[in-house]
Design brief:
Blueprint (H helix, E strand, L loop, with lengths): L12 E4 L6 E9 L5 E7 L2 E9 H4 L5 E4 L4
Antiparallel strand pairs: 1-2, 1-5, 2-3, 3-4
Length: 71
């Protein structure tokens, strides 16, 4: 069984699972004042659309999958 990489870095792309799942690219990784780590992402097909997600949500295999090189 292959282990899932837990490292999140700028430039990685993730696809939201489910109907209408779009691809998002990480543009920044930041820690908030409480110590939680979040990823700011832009939509691959519309770079003006941004969202911020907790890294824990991004690494949940039921919500997102990594796409691109070494996915």
């Amino acid at each position: 069984m292959r282990r899932r990489k837990r490292e999140i870095a700028e430039g990685q792309r993730y696809r939201r699972l489910g109907p209408g799942g779009s691809v998002w690219e990480i543009v920044a990784v930041r820690k908030d004042v409480m110590g939680a780590t979040h990823a700011q992402m832009k939509r691959a097909d519309d770079p003006k659309t941004l969202k911020t997600l907790a890294i824990a949500a991004l690494l949940d295999p039921e919500q997102f999958e990594r796409v691109g090189e070494e996915a």
